[in-house]
Design goal:
Elements lengths: L27 H27 L11 E3 L2 E3 L1 H21 L3 H6 L1 E5 L6 H10 L1 H4 L6 H9 L6 H6 L1 E5 L3
Antiparallel strand pairs: 1-2, 3-4
Amino acid sequence: MCPNSLRRTGDQGEPAAASGAAPRYAGLWIRFAALAVDGLLFCAVFFPVTRLVKGVWLMSPGHHRWTSGWFIFDPLCLVFLLVMFVYFAVLEGFFGATFGKWVIGLRVTRAGGGHPGLGRGLVRNILRLVDGLPALCILGIVLIVTSTECARFGDRVARTRVLRLTR
């Protein structure tokens, strides 16, 4: 099980592993809080862009370019998905945190410590597709909750971990 509440942390706002103390892994709910902050940031950008491009704040199936049964697609949605992927991969890879992780006090690191780099950031975020299986991120949730290092599939393959910072 994810032992995040039992770990000692480092000093001066560093990941615990960087200060020599045992790492304090970020559990499910704190990671969800960071994702919620990122979601609010996306809403603050995407809703006004949708309003400018489509003339509505929130798109219904009738506002999408292609609709056929359950299949709904619009180029604007594809642009938003690409922006979100680049946002997570680049910020986590180079800086170790998205805005949401930074606000909440989390950091993505290599399993042994240090910045993940762009390659690991790309791998861990491409594998969000696997963590999302079969639906509603069930695989990722189960892996985070049952892992001693609170690592989802993308973290395991990319050899990254999400740590809580000290304040």
